[in-house]
Write a structure and sequence with these properties.
- The complex is a heterodimer of chains A (536) and B (89).
- Chain A has a nine-stranded mixed sheet with strand order 2-1-11-10-12-13-14-15-16, sandwiched between helices. A five-stranded parallel sheet of chain A has the order 4-3-5-6-7, with helices on both faces.
- In chain A, helix 2 packs across helix 3 and helix 7 crosses helix 8.
- Chain A starts with a helix and ends with a helix.
- Chain A contains 15 helices and 27 strands.
- Chain A is globular.
- Chain A is of the alpha/beta class and 536 residues long.
- The longest helix of chain B is centred in the middle third of the chain and has 15 residues.
- Chain B is 49% helix and 0% strand.
- Chain B is an all-alpha fold.
- Chain B starts with a helix and ends in a 10-residue tail after the last helix.
- Chain B is globular and about 35 Å long.
- The chains are: A alpha/beta (536), B mainly alpha (89).
- Chains A and B meet through helix 9, helix 10 and helix 14 of A and helix 2 of B.
Chain lengths: 536, 89
């Protein structure tokens, strides 16, 4: 019985050692090879003093090396923390310090960058290379700058390969231990680390495998990077059935025609991404010019799929099943809906019904459970798929994981999603909007408060408000309204430059405006509704 | 034309200040400057600004590698008579 994520790999490696586990361009990795290499990585981690429960950073794009690395971490009984090499250094250092990362695994191209970053992270012991340059050469000029503090030791891949490749012996974790921490936007300015246990992840993976009907013939692909929870599906669900994870090459998902070529060439059977990539594919991908008859399931999550673009996709690619999966990082996927075939849909796509072994229910503002179509309430989720909480933040955890309001007899945690929903006539939940200041842009969650906090860090910003502007493709664009100190002098470019140094790109405001003062309501609070009504 | 496109990308697409100022020959792909939505916004911009239609078959890395390659692509479109530059790009 699989009760730890890496049991999925052990089972597939025993059953089908020669099958391809990861296909990444020229480099492909069989199940036995993945199993043995990740054993070596686990031993290299143990040799660095990594103990069960320790956090290990993974500093690499999704790749064969990264998959080896994350299984190595799990086998060592540790918890992996994906670090996006494209994030600003300051944010990465804050994340690494927040959860006390002991060791970083980096692919060779990123190792020097990781070592330079590690200097500013107290307690970080080593950077270990995960894999040689499989498909990615080190960019010129990435040698670490001369730093006064001594960077942590870098363990070369050759030393990892010198570790024994056999299985490690008794498990070093139990299913309630953390498998990974995914950092998402936090309302107070600091990113929050969502802690996911093996049990929670497997609850999702087992349901997802059945829902998508995965088997070993499948070739599963998703452009989602490892720090985005969509990647849990292609990495672990594919592994569990002995299917192939096809790594989308960098930049391929950007160019729709390239993506359709790649999907055809790689014979991808199951695709999982945010809707905006599919919108681009349907609009510019020349889907009819390619043989995509093997693509049997198209799954999307992360934001609302505009019906107009979904209809186009259904018309261009009529042979596939279309699944809408819903769930914040804190719950994994918790509801789902299969889009009926045929274009011409006008109603928004529901988020659907609860997944197997999960329960989702909505509670009205009066505290009653939403039972009839048309009633509105906030969505709550309970079940084994829930997160353990936010790393190092019990207060935030208590506000998110609340006692189930519908279970007075005993304590049971339920996750308050903050999403307002209603029921349709078929009993599906339909997403209406947010209760708070969180918006989605490009499939990423953004707390408006975090962007505001970054703006306030500029000495010339007296007041700042960030508002979402609905955008068909992006979900929301971010509009910053700023009152500057003194008589002007603060430019749009200065504000953007300031934000880019502190925030990942998807959180940098798209629109920057300056006002002499902000409108206020009778309580003295900034009148967001009035500001929203006076766009541009 | 280079200045107009460099300005647009620097203002609207670049997400990491460490990459500015942006050189016209700098790779927009290796640096991660361009993502799928960045590309879409850029295409909408050049279509409006230069009055050309970018066909889906032209949405390839070779044409969007750098500011220079975008301009070379747009000029080749102009040469075909596919569009006329609007304004003073």
């Amino acid at each position: 019985m699989a009760y730890l994520l890496h049991h999925l790999l052990a089972a597939s490696a025993a059953r089908a050692p020669g099958r391809t586990a990861v296909a990444a361009g020229e480099r492909s990795l069989g199940y036995a090879e993945l199993d043995r290499l990740s054993n070596r990585v686990a031993r290299a981690l143990l040799a660095q003093g990594v103990a069960p429960g320790d956090r290990v950073g993974i500093f690499a794009p999704k790749s064969a090396a990264a998959v080896v690395a994350l299984f190595g971490v799990l086998k060592a009984g540790a918890c992996y923390v994906p670090l996006d090499p494209k994030s600003p250094a300051g944010r990465l250092a804050a994340i690494m310090t927040d959860c006390g990362i002991a060791v970083v695994l980096a692919d060779r191209a990123s190792a020097a960058q990781a070592a330079a970053l590690a200097v500013s992270v107290p307690g970080l012991r080593a950077v270990i290379e995960a894999g040689p340059h499989w498909g990615r050469e080190a960019a010129a000029g990435t040698t670490p700058p001369e730093q006064a503090p001594v960077p942590p030791a870098t363990v070369p891949w050759e030393a990892v390969l010198a570790e024994p490749a056999g299985a490690l012996g008794p498990d070093l974790a139990i299913d309630t231990d953390l498998a990974y921490i995914l950092y998402t936007s936090g309302s107070t300015g600091a990113p929050k680390g969502v802690m996911i246990s093996h049990r929670a992840s497997l609850t999702f993976v087992e349901w997802a495998t059945a829902c998508a009907g995965l088997d070993e013939r499948d070739r599963v692909a998703s452009p989602a990077p490892l720090h985005f929870d969509l990647s849990v599906f292609d990495v672990f669900a594919a592994c569990g059935v002995g299917a192939c994870l096809a790594v989308v090459p960098e930049n391929t998902a950007i160019f729709p025609a390239r993506l359709s070529q790649w999907l055809e060439r790689e014979r991808v059977t199951v695709w999982y991404s945010v809707p905006s990539v599919l919108t681009m594919l349907a609009t510019y991908g020349n889907l009819r010019g390619h043989d995509l008859s093997g693509l049997r399931a198209v799954i999307f999550a992360g934001e609302v799929f505009p019906v107009k673009h979904l209809n186009l996709l259904l018309a261009e690619l009529p042979g596939a099943r279309y699944l809408n999966w819903y769930g914040p990082t804190e719950t994994n996927v918790c509801t789902w809906y299969e889009v009926p075939s045929g274009a011409g849909r006008t109603a928004p796509v529901p988020i659907g019904k609860a997944c197997a072994n999960m329960d989702a229910f909505a509670v009205t503002s009066g505290g009653d459970r939403v039972a009839k179509p048309g009633e509105e309430g906030e969505l709550y989720v309970r079940g084994s798929g829930l997160m353990r909480g936010y790393w190092g933040d019990q207060d935030k955890t208590r506000r998110a994981l609340v006692p189930n309001p519908c279970q007075p007899a005993y304590d049971e945690p339920a996750y308050r999603t903050g999403d307002l929903v209603t029921l349709d006539d078929e009993g599906n939940f339909v997403f209406l909007g947010r209760r708070d200041g969180m918006v989605k842009t490009r499939g990423y969650r953004v707390e408006l408060g975090e962007v505001e906090a970054a703006l306030y860090a500029h000495p010339a910003v007296r007041e700042a408000v960030v508002l979402p502007v609905p955008d068909e493709l992006l979900g929301s664009r971010l509009r910053a309204v700023i009152c500057a100190e003194g008589s002007g002098g603060l430019s749009r470019e200065e504000v953007l430059d300031h934000c880019r140094r502190r925030l990942p790109g998807y959180m940098v405001p798209d629109i920057v405006e300056f006002l002499g003062s902000l409108p206020r309501n009778s309580n003295g609070k900034v009148d967001r509704a009035r500001l929203a009504g006076h766009e541009g | 034309m280079e200045t107009v496109i460099n300005d647009y990308i620097s203002r609207e697409v670049v997400q990491d200040a460490a990459l500015l100022p942006l050189g016209n020959a700098t790779s927009l792909l290796e640096t991660g400057i361009l993502d799928s939505l960045g590309l879409l916004r850029l295409v909408v911009f050049v279509q409006e600004r230069f009055g050309v239609t970018v066909d889906d078959v032209d949405l390839i890395p070779e044409h969007f590698e750098s500011v220079d390659s975008i301009c070379a692509y747009l000029r080749s479109r102009d040469g075909e008579g596919a569009g006329r530059a609007v304004g003073h790009g």
